[in-house]
Design a protein that fits this description.
The complex is a heterodimer of chains A (323) and B (250). With 323 residues, chain A is mainly alpha-helical. Chain A has helices at residues 2-23, 29-49, 53-57, 65-71, 88-107, 111-128, 136-148, 159-166, 177-202, 205-209, 212-217, 234-254, 258-278, 282-292, 298-317. Chain A folds into two domains: 27-150, no CATH class; 191-318, no CATH class. Helices cover 37% and strands 15% of the residues of chain B. Classes of the chains: A mainly alpha (323), B alpha+beta (250).
Chain lengths: 323, 250
């Protein structure tokens, strides 16, 4: 009986912990900040397609749709609106509509609807260029858009919140279970990304040898700031390589502990900031940093963003939300 | 949970509800929300989703393996022959990740989650470039260039998209190069085009310290050439391609 009741108690405790983890209501400040920044990234990323839209997204171009569909094995689950658009005027119309959607998501205007449309468009563009011109940025963009759909991403820092103020609703923003769920899923997804990115590096000899960072920095096509002066400092290269690998491998464990979380997140700033600055992948580096914001507590986000957001709300809505 | 429900009921009866949808505005941070049945259902969806997210990189990071101590065959001269073909039964397949990803594949595709996340893995390597030269029917050069090219493609993201085109042609096969060729002919006009697919090899710290520039000519190695004529049909590989490997006899 004792064993049974202990087991029952253990299961009950686990269920409570599970509920607290996934279904505890939180302030949607973190999710809202991620919407603002991810919306900006989505808008910019897709705006850049405008510079050569037909070549990358059109029916023909670099890789014709018919060829891409064949490479994708004609799977019904790989879908893109651009597989079906033939006239150039329609391609541009849909593209401009998508840009409006991403812009509205960035501003937080009809946020939930725009988040759903934004996700559908982000996947549409990504499938059109996979394989071909896709890279890590598209994966992270789609991931961010997917989780934004799940929660009240426009509850703060948005035109939606200004519209509420203008209607005279100055009540504090409600803690939200859906916001927690969205952020938790993003956190878990990020842990899976870093874990497998680290495990994949374990199969590379240069990551073991401590030279991989050199080979990344010595790539002229990626390089945006010349770091080849490191050739004379092999110990720095080795240190950076080993630290980056261990950080990726243990991110999924250390980021949950309150004592190691800040260290892990600062490492993310250095690693992704380094990729953005030195390897020319500004968008990808920033997208990963935006995803890492999922581990910033809503109270911290409000402390950082609140004063500016209040000023903007006062300017646009004439009032601020009660805290 | 009953305690929580009672507490919430008491709060709701004590205070009039807000006229907006934010009726749970007084729910304190961390309080568990939603009806238990709803939570059970969402929990199930969470498990399915996380399993799917996990399955893609897990499968892509696992490799089939030969049994320990497997002796590879030898040829008449006693030299070891290459590995057995991938469809050989001797290979041990990682069946759990393979089947898991196969089970979730349509969900993974629909949500654009079918990735390995192998950033700079297993090892950072050199970049691919494609150089091209277009001629008219008289053989006169009318355009040439390369991609990626920082002087032509701006902003950096557009440059990076072109870099991916050059990089991913290796995975897609020669037909992708032929499509690039015809796209360039369509854009620039001309009768024939010659594409060179190159890899820009990386220099070691010692080579750089000794003064070799990263763009030294010997670091550019041609992997394949493609020659195309305007109007030629590009389709599935019929068994022969116009790709030639330098030094390979064509």
């Amino acid at each position: 009986m004792g064993v049974l009741s202990d087991a029952r108690g253990y299961v009950a405790e686990c269920w409570q912990a599970w509920n607290r983890f996934w279904f505890g209501a939180v302030d949607p400040a973190t999710l809202s900040l991620i919407r603002l920044l991810a919306g900006t990234m989505l808008f910019y990323t897709h705006l850049v397609w405008s510079l050569d839209l037909q070549a990358f997204i059109g029916q023909e171009g670099w890789l014709p749709v018919e060829y891409i569909r064949r490479i994708q094995d004609q799977q019904w689950s790989v879908q893109s609106v651009f597989f079906y658009i033939k006239p150039v005027w329609l391609l541009w119309t849909v593209h401009l509509f998508a840009l409006v959607v991403f812009f509205c998501l960035m501003l937080g205007f009809f946020s939930r609807i725009m988040a759903v449309l934004g996700f559908l468009f982000a996947v549409s563009y990504a499938h059109r260029v996979s394989p071909g011109a896709f890279f890590g940025l598209d994966k992270i963009n789609c991931m961010l858009a997917m989780y934004l759909m799940l929660g009240p991403c426009g509850a703060r820092y948005s035109l939606d919140s200004v519209r509420r103020l203008r209607r005279g609703d100055t009540q504090p923003v409600a803690p939200s279970t859906a916001a927690n769920l969205a952020v938790r899923l993003l956190q878990i997804h990020l842990c899976i990304i870093y874990l497998f990115s680290g495990l994949a590096k374990l199969t590379g000899e240069n990551w073991h040898a401590g030279t991989a960072v050199w080979w990344a920095l010595a790539n002229l096509e990626y390089q945006s700031i010349d770091m080849t002066w490191l050739a004379n400092h092999p110990i720095l290269i080795a240190f950076a390589t080993h630290v980056a690998l261990f950080w990726e491998l243990f991110y999924c464990a250390l980021v949950w502990n309150r004592y190691t979380r800040s260290l892990v997140l600062w490492m993310a700033v250095f690693v992704h900031g380094g990729i953005a600055l030195f390897m020319g992948m500004i968008t990808f580096g920033l997208a990963m940093l935006i995803a890492n914001l999922a581990f910033i507590k809503p109270a911290t986000v409000r402390r950082w963003v609140g004063p500016v957001a209040d000023r903007v709300a006062l300017m646009l809505g004439g009032k601020t939300v009660k805290s | 949970m009953a305690k929580f429900e009672q507490k919430r009921d008491a709060q709701q009866s004590a205070k009039p509800a807000q006229p907006t949808a934010r009726q749970d505005v007084k729910r304190p941070n961390g309080e568990i929300g939603w009806h238990p049945a709803w939570r059970w259902m969402v929990s199930l969806l969470i498990v399915v989703h996380v399993a799917a997210v996990f399955s893609a990189p897990w499968d892509l990071s696992t490799l089939a393996a030969l049994p320990p101590g497997y002796q590879m065959g030898t040829d008449n001269l006693g030299r070891q022959v290459s590995l057995p073909p991938m469809d050989s039964e001797v290979w041990q397949q990682p069946i759990v990740p393979r089947n898991l990803r196969r089970f979730f594949r349509h969900y993974l595709n629909l949500m654009y989650l079918n990735h390995g996340y192998e950033f700079f893995a297993p090892d950072p390597g050199g970049s691919n470039l494609i150089r091209y030269q277009i001629r008219d029917s008289g053989g006169q050069e009318i355009a040439k260039g390369q991609f990626p090219d920082l002087t032509q493609q701006w902003p950096r993201l557009l440059y990076h998209r072109h870099m991916m085109l050059a990089a991913q042609t290796g995975e897609m096969g020669p037909e992708s190069g032929r499509h690039y060729a015809h796209h360039l002919l369509n854009v620039n006009g001309g009768h024939t085009i010659r594409l060179e697919w190159l890899i820009h090899a990386l220099l070691s710290p010692k080579q750089v310290a000794d003064g070799t520039p990263l763009d030294a000519p010997q670091t550019y190695l041609v992997l394949a050439n493609i020659e195309e004529t305007a109007g030629a049909r590009v389709g599935p590989p019929p068994g022969e391609t116009s790709v030639t490997i330098p030094g390979g006899g064509r």
